[in-house]
Specification:
about 500 residues, alpha+beta, SH3 type barrels, Kinesin, 14 helices
Length: about 500
């Protein structure tokens, strides 16, 4: 691998071809491989017969079905910054080009109007600092190396020049880095479009909205330690001069089922573990909580801690974000009371009565009493709402006695509904504080929840996957239409 030269910017974002690629006058093909995906083979014969004779890079000579092979590009195309420049654009060539760039820590690559970003799973690459922001500010996309900042700047310039609203879609499977790239887009725009050309109070509030939402809407999954379990559309508002004046956030598909159960190796939402790790004994007594392993809703996935997450430190960040945004101490206390109440409700047990047709709460003075005190509701009314609620039959209200199984479902439904209302309250509070009364234009950033397939898939995950698929199809159709228009313009 060659050493890079030039400025720091070129070193961390530019591809320096090492000229060590194989030059041959014989055509080369990509051959499917169960271990590596694809391997390169030199065509020795059989072209057009349906069976190719190929010499692999290992020296082995094989015969392979020609229809299953893909044409390879000459070595001079290795590591191109825009894959639309490739002579042969197929799956194998795309993967190869992305791999060559990734080996140089180059995680951004264009594919026509798209930007492909590969999660580096490390933070040591210096490509998101203020120096890099200034390099991309006001530059055309082709004047700089591929970067999410380039797309953010293009959206901002298009908004100013065309006087039209802009939107960016950030999509990918869970763990691909959607939320992180969303934050980088917001960071860039907040910096270049701030009132004083920097980050003021409003810009700081906008930046801090994401970390706070992550505490309540993100969780550890098997694919990602900080997976967004909801989708969001962030609308950055601007005045006629292009200065950012506010923002609104619209959320959808919060994975409420995670509140009451998690898959193996997964956790509940971060805020539950943060509250336990970040509070002293006096505060724990106030919220009637102990340790994470004591709560059924927190230990369902047999994963209480994550190596990459310091729950105590993150709790301080969450509270700091709330303070910056404008959520006062009384409101914070109310939120934490509800979180603690949900933990206690998860430990409530029932015993059968009336021959299994009804049930009663075991040890009502313990967990249910804790929850009632935290929620500031009457204990008996909370008990009745769970085990013998009133249902409407015609014009009458009838009190129905639940069995143990029905009461458990009732309790879980209550906890999911309470948590969702806390989450939506936070969104409403954010919008009330951050939204401008009027706007000239906006840039929308859509961060859709990640596509995942679990061993046991919840209804929420089905909705997430279905939404992803439909949205991806719509986006592809829209972008391919734009690509065709661009092609026609270049042809003329």
């Amino acid at each position: 691998m060659s050493k890079r030269s030039g400025t720091t910017y070129d070193k961390v974002l530019g591809y320096n071809q090492d000229n060590s690629f194989n030059i041959t006058d014989k055509p080369q093909m990509w051959v499917p491989d169960t271990e590596k995906g694809y391997v390169l083979g030199e065509v020795m014969g059989g072209k057009g017969t349906g069976k190719l004779k190929l010499k692999l890079t290992t020296g082995d000579i094989i015969e392979y079905d020609e229809s299953k092979c893909a044409e390879a590009n000459p070595g001079k195309f290795d590591g191109v910054s825009d894959m639309s420049d490739l002579s042969h654009l197929n799956e194998a060539s795309v993967f190869h080009n992305l791999k060559k760039r990734y080996e140089y820590d180059l995680i951004h690559t264009y594919s026509g109007l798209f930007l492909v970003v590969i999660n580096p799973y490390k933070w040591s690459i210096p490509i998101y600092n203020e120096e890099i922001i200034h390099i991309y500010q006001g530059k055309r996309r082709k004047e700089v190396h591929p970067h999410v900042y380039a797309l953010a700047d293009e959206a901002y310039r298009n908004m100013l020049q065309d006087r039209k609203n802009q939107s960016m879609l950030i999509t990918g499977e869970s763990g691909a880095g959607k939320t992180e790239n969303t934050k980088k887009v917001i960071q860039y725009i907040a910096t270049i479009a701030g009132r004083k050309g920097g980050v003021g109070k409003l810009e700081q509030q906008i930046l801090e909205a994401n970390p706070m939402l992550e505490a309540f809407g993100n969780a550890k999954t098997n694919k990602n330690d900080n997976s967004s379990r909801f989708g969001k559309f962030i609308r950055l508002q601007f005045n006629t001069g292009g200065v950012i004046v506010g923002t609104t956030i619209q959320t959808y598909l919060l994975e409420k089922s995670r509140v009451v159960g998690q898959g193996k190796g997964e956790r509940n939402f971060h805020i539950f573990y943060q509250l336990i790790a970040g509070t002293d004994n006096e505060t724990k007594n106030k919220y009637k909580i102990t340790k994470a392993s004591d709560y059924n809703f927190l230990k369902g996935g047999d994963c209480l801690s994550v190596n990459s997450i310091d729950d105590k430190k993150e709790f301080e960040h969450t509270k700091e974000a709330m303070n910056i945004i404008g959520i006062d101490s009384e409101e914070q206390d109310g939120i934490f009371r509800v979180i603690a109440a949900i933990m206690n409700l998860g430990n409530v047990e029932f015993e059968a009565q009336y021959g299994g047709e009804g049930c009663e709460v075991k040890n009502i003075e313990k967990f249910l009493a804790n929850a009632a005190e935290l929620l500031k509701v009457n204990l008996e009314k909370l008990r009745d709402a769970i085990i013998k609620p009133f249902i409407t039959a015609g014009n009458d209200k009838i009190q129905k006695h639940f069995s143990v199984e029905q009461a458990q479902y009732s309790l879980k439904a209550l906890c999911k509904a309470i948590y969702e209302r806390v989450f939506l309250w936070l969104i409403q509070k954010l919008n009330k504080i951050l939204a401008a009364d009027s706007e000239a234009y906006f840039i929308g950033v859509l961060d859709i929840a990640g596509f995942e397939i679990f061993e046991i898939n919840s209804f929420e995950q089905l909705c997430i996957n279905f939404t992803n698929e439909k949205l991806q199809q719509f986006f592809n159709q829209h972008m391919f239409t734009l690509e065709q228009e661009e092609y026609e313009r270049e042809k003329n």
